[in-house]
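Hey,
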Amino acid sequence: MAIVPESAPLSLTRSVPEFDAVVIGAGFSGMYMLHRLRDMLGLSVRVYEDGDDVGGTWYWNRYPGARCDSESYIYCYTFDRQLLQEWQWSERYPEQPEILRYLNHVADRFDLRRDIQFSTRVTAAAFDEETNRWQVRTSLGEVVSARYLIAAVGTLSKANLPKFRGLETFRGKWYHTNQWPQGGVDFTAKRVAVVGTGATAVQVIPEVSQQAKQLTVFQRTPAFCVPARNGKVDPEVVKARKADYDGIVERIRNSQFGHEIYFIEKSALDDSPEERQREFDKRWDAGGFAFWIGNYQDMLFNQEANDLCADYLKRKIRATVNDPVVAEKLIPKTYPYGTKRQPLDTNYFETFNKANVLLVDAADAPIEEITPKGIRAGGEEYEFDIIIFATGFDALTGPLTSIDLRGRAGKSLSEKWADGPHTYLGLAVTGFPNLFMITGPGSPSVMSNMPVSIEQHVEWISDCVNYMLKHNLTVIEATPAAEAEWTFHVAEVADATLMTRANSWYMGANMPGKPRVFMAYLGGVGVYRQKCDEVAAHGYKGFALGGTAQSGNGR
């Protein structure tokens, strides 16, 4: 029997619209998935998007200072050579409006909007074991049927707003960075609070400080920041990259993190202090992720090597922040360097030298409640006109478990993942046939330049669907053994590093009650691609395939 998602008067025994595939989300992932399935395989596809236009992450995250932290020349689609040559990025790290313009351009170029239903959220979906199809329900009360359900929901799309007592009493205005007003916010002559100091806050804080009368930053855990070194890119460099796109694409697809950045192939302990200083300086001056993922190869494995990198950054903070007391508060002391998301900053630490900026150490003076006038922390009340919550996301699993997804026997994905995500390749889940996840938990995902991983997943999924069509098959499901083996492997690789020693959102530690599991695959983008290719080459080893296709729309 079909399990009806969210009981409602509409009966699933009635005729409902049928599609070959339903795709959830119209960001980088969903747009490319639509193009591959519709334009290359000729399938009927419906995309549902909660926003009123394309963009995904870059539609919702329009807070001050929002920009990409991967370099623009590789933060883009690579499947269309002409698009690569034609599009011109204005800076090394493009801002949100420019990325959104790019995605709108792609939507126009491939006529994608005609198969996207905007302002519509998928609230539930259930697998019907009689028909081997997904029954999908939307926020508008619609129900449609699809052979394949593809979650292009993004990894950082479910906002985390901690349950602060008294928030509803606040008489000013408050915003979460993921739900920013389209018209922006005017901070002129306003007393503003920013809660959080992660990668988003590091972008927000310098921008707000330029306009606000008073800015107070509530910091629970300080961040190791490195400079972005943003700016215009030398036209000769742009020209050389366009001439070498085939080489660039090949290199990023087979790299560790989807960037043209590579570890120093020796231990930090092998170099003299003077040699290490030169290597550190070179990466600091280069900016971007060079210091994080282009450092000594044992930096994320050996605590002594890690300490050498961390000490360099601590010295930089002390040299930048004028007040020694404030500087010490801004220095991380509770986790190894690089085990949390690396924020790229532009004048972040310099901001704390401003007379209108105050740092409150919420580790020593935790936020007790939101009051009608502001925030009470450490027994003191701070008055504000505006509060900005830069408190991040329920990462990787949250966007999926927030949908009532039910597989065989009506079991929900939330139940399945009660002790952490179990997946095969981060693509599929046992008990949930014909469900594919793009950059799901258990894949490189957030530990990579996202478009590289997105393209790899979209192409693998579409190739798999094409294989199913050619072999007259209708059901594909990860086997329990393959899922268990892969989930163990993901944990095994993570446990060999220092990454599990931080209370990071990579570990789900920012969400009360969430299992502590490192959710991304650390084996590397290139290694992972090879593993996925091998699975496909061996007839989708680790998957159970079956069913008999029927003719007509919806297959």
